[in-house]
């Protein structure tokens, strides 16, 4: 009797494992095809964005724009904010002179004007948050240290949303209805920590000569050399803010995303880190029975 129980247990385990497709960790792609086994007539696609590169990269991925324009619904992390929402976020900012010394402000101003960005006084007067200043600095340094994509562009997410609007394709933001924790989109960093990061990048540029990850992050992404690590736990699992930003938001999105993917031909653009690891969206969708397949892309930069 015990042997029979063991045999049947192994059979059920095998059936359960066969129901999930094995996801390749290094598929050399940014785009995944997603279909529901119950409604295979609907075919959707998910692209992972690094929130830096946009139209130039999208146009170099042959066929991706056609997939976007043929979709019934375009889904993003969140939709562009209204002017009122933007102004509210700008009202919550610490003056730069409390974060940087006078000499550092001069160096920052030189960096920003060299890269044809508004001068530091104008940004400070506009209450430009230090989190956005860090994003600009990091984006500019990443772009100039990668020969594939020298010019900083409108982020991929925004380009896809713009294309959808121009084509009158309905849009959905996955964050809609979710109460975000304060400063969660600042990657768990306080203003003083973000200022220190800016200081390291701009005031001590020698860091760029030794930091291979910064020098190659954009290049690896543009060449689609992504390790999705589907069998691993997220490397940021111990950081409460990052866990909320990625893992907890994934759980919230999974309460809505499967329904969209089961009933429409969707095109989804979200940060690529949301797709990685065993708690990522692709692994979660696979566990629910969706067929997940990497899309082979031809890249011409």
Key features of this structure:
301 residues; alpha/beta; 6-stranded mixed sheet; globular; disordered N terminus
What report would you give on this structure?
There is one protein chain. With 301 residues, this protein is an alpha/beta fold. It is built from 14 helices and six strands. The chain has helices at residues 2-18, 55-60, 64-69, 83-90, 102-114, 120-125, 130-144, 156-166, 191-203, 207-210, 212-222, 240-254, 257-263, 281-287, and strands at 31-36, 43-49, 73-76, 171-173, 266-271, 290-294. It has a six-stranded mixed sheet with strand order 4-3-5-2-1-6, with helices on both faces. A hairpin with a 6-residue loop joins strand 1 (31-36) and strand 2 (43-49). The longest helix has 17 residues, at 2-18. It is globular and about 60 Å long. The protein starts with a helix and ends in a 7-residue tail after the last strand. Residues 1-19, 83-90, 147-152 and 206-217 have low confidence and may be disordered.
Which structural class matches the secondary elements?
alpha/beta
Overall residue-averaged pLDDT value: 77
Q: How many distinct beta strands?
A: 6
> What is the overall number of helices?
14
Q: What is the alpha-carbon Rg in Å?
A: 22 Å
How do the strands of the widest beta sheet line up side by side? Answer: 4-3-5-2-1-6
Give the overall silhouette: globular
Helicity, in percent? 40-55%
Distance between the termini: 64 Å
Give a quick account of the main beta sheet: strands, pairing sense, barrel closure. Answer: 6 strands, mixed
pLDDT under 50 segments (min length 5)?
A: 1-19, 83-90, 147-152, 206-217
SSE run: HEEHHEHHHHHEHHHHHEHE
DSSP strand (E) fraction?
5-15%
Oligomer: single chain
